[in-house]
Amino acid sequence: MRNLRMLSRLLCALTLAFLVGCATATMPSGYRTTVGTGDDAINLVVVRGTPYEMGKAFGSLMKDEIKAGVNSFIAHAKKEAGPVLSNDALFNGALDMAWKSMEPYVDERFKQELQGVSDGSGVDYDTIRRGHMIPAIAPYSCSGVIAWGDATTDGHLYHFRNLDFTVDGGLQDVPVITVYIPNEGIPHANVTFAGVISVNTGMNAEGISLGEKGESPAKEMPFKLDGEHFMTLFRRVLYDAHTMDQALEMLQSARRVKKYYWYVGDGKIPAGVKIKAFAPDMKIWRGGDPTDERAPNILPNVVYQSIENKIAYEMLSKPGAKQNAESMIAISRAVASDDGNLLNVVYDATDLEMYVSYAEKQEPASKRTYVPVRLKDYLGIHKLPKDAVIYTAPPAAK
């Protein structure tokens, strides 16, 4: 009888392994679909595997958009740089110097994935790398609010991030939400642009949401870049942080550059923080903290810093106000820049949902539809969308 039980368990284990193996074998390394409709349609790409494999799948699935987007963005940045960096050698040299300063602090996974994007898209590695350096050397301003617990209608954590940067570089023409399912690490979503694998905002499967507000004015250029830019740092956090404490530990221990406000939400607790990350110093404020720079205009279970703080506070502090996705979209619209509002995202980090809006040509993101996206629909093995464009990695060489 004992031998029969052991045989039964062995057969069950082998069957389970076979089914998992079959499921894994039949899943592509990546696929591409869309969310939203018409002018509001947004590319959504799901990739899985090693960093290099995920990069190559992303590059292959988005190659046309990557070629168009990277070239347009770099051309615009060069034009904005003016006569000081008027030729390719000087402009590329400035971006290469930025990379050289920050490269020692960049995660190896990021570098491997970047190579994969280049190989998959056919765009020169140095060109893609330089494109990633433009946000590091440029000034910009944004907005963010997090509300949770008793400050919301359902106790969830809601977090919005407005990216007020530029609509003249054409990034809004190549929008993409990239969902990563790494072999090692936490699945996560990057709300981004074709070819951009660093994170200006995102959320992982543990409900950690991230956003920022730039505070480095142009008069401080050229910026000191002997450290890690927040966009590669944020990507590490999404990969590895299961909790807010882990996220904060990573942010505090990093060698930071420039001046930013960062926002970190944890939908599981739920709770959020605002961070004044003015390298090399850092201050962390939680909801209702009397030391917050917005005091006395502070609220329990809410943190905020925007380009229109008066408007944000008025909307957040209305008598009986309780936040949800709809109200956070309204605040996001109200505080957005009139010029250069490129991308806005509202997260429900408790339910792993997002509402995403990109600019359309010169129309700011705040005037567009906030397209709903259920992140958990893309995190595991599931039925592929009918319109999915599939990328299957070639077998490894023997």
CATH H-level homologous superfamily name? Penicillin V Acylase, Chain A
Q: How many separate domains?
A: 1
Named CATH architecture: 4-Layer Sandwich
Major beta sheet, strand line-up: 11-10-9-8-7-6-5-2-1-16
Structure, explained:
The model is unreliable at 1-26 (pLDDT under 50). The chain is 34% helix and 26% strand. The relative contact order is 0.15. It has a single domain (30-384), classed as Penicillin V Acylase, Chain A (4-Layer Sandwich). The protein has helices at residues 2-26, 51-61, 63-81, 88-102, 108-121, 125-137, 230-240, 244-253, 309-316, 325-335, and strands spanning 30-35, 42-49, 141-149, 155-164, 175-182, 188-193, 202-204, 208-214, 259-266, 271-278, 281-286, 302-305, 341-348, 353-358, 371-374, 389-391. It is globular and about 55 Å long. The chain has a ten-stranded mixed β-sheet with strand order 11-10-9-8-7-6-5-2-1-16, with helices on one face. It has a six-stranded antiparallel β-sheet with strand order 12-3-4-13-14-15, covered by helices on one side. It contains ten helices and 16 strands. With 398 residues, it is α+β, with helices and mostly antiparallel strands.
Properties at a glance:
single chain, 398 residues, alpha+beta, Penicillin V Acylase, Chain A, disordered N terminus
Short description:
This protein is an alpha+beta fold and 398 residues long.
Layout: helices, strands, pairs:
Layout: H1 2-26, E1 30-35, E2 42-49, H2 51-61, H3 63-81, H4 88-102, H5 108-121, H6 125-137, E3 141-149, E4 155-164, E5 175-182, E6 188-193, E7 202-204, E8 208-214, H7 230-240, H8 244-253, E9 259-266, E10 271-278, E11 281-286, E12 302-305, H9 309-316, H10 325-335, E13 341-348, E14 353-358, E15 371-374, E16 389-391
Helix pairs in contact: 2-5, 3-6, 4-6, 7-8
